[in-house]
Design goal:
- 32% of the residues lie in helices and 26% in strands.
- It contains three helices and five strands.
- The protein is an alpha/beta fold.
- The N and C termini lie far apart (46 Å).
Length: 107
């Protein structure tokens, strides 16, 4: 698996991105989200530990309409096997409530 954790080029017009066989860190995900402002679909097939996500990164993820973050361990990785994980409903609810908290704190 190739690690994705550093400098990502600016891709202002990119709407869809699928990465296969990668080991994505939170820094790599943040880099993608920061450099691809129009991203609507992001599918990561490889490994990502969403337990390491902070509140700010979850908020950035919430702007992507169709998000898949694979949460398999690197040694479990294999095409066609179960293990992909969409941002859970619980995470989505948490993100929504955090956005509301942030909005009310701005006033």
């Amino acid at each position: 698996m190739e690690p994705v954790h550093g400098a990502i080029p600016v891709m202002c017009k990119l709407h869809t991105l699928e990465l296969y066989g990668c080991d994505l860190t939170c820094e790599g995900l943040e880099g993608i989200l920061d450099k691809c402002p129009l991203l609507e679909t992001l599918h990561i097939h490889g490994h990502f530990d969403k337990r390491e996500m902070d509140k700010e990164l979850k908020l950035k993820c919430s702007r992507v309409n169709n998000l898949t973050l694979d949460t398999k361990k690197p040694y479990d990785y294999g095409y066609g096997s179960a293990g992909s994980s969409y941002l859970s409903e619980e995470d989505s609810s948490q993100i929504s409530s955090e956005e509301e908290d942030n909005d009310s704190g701005d006033e």
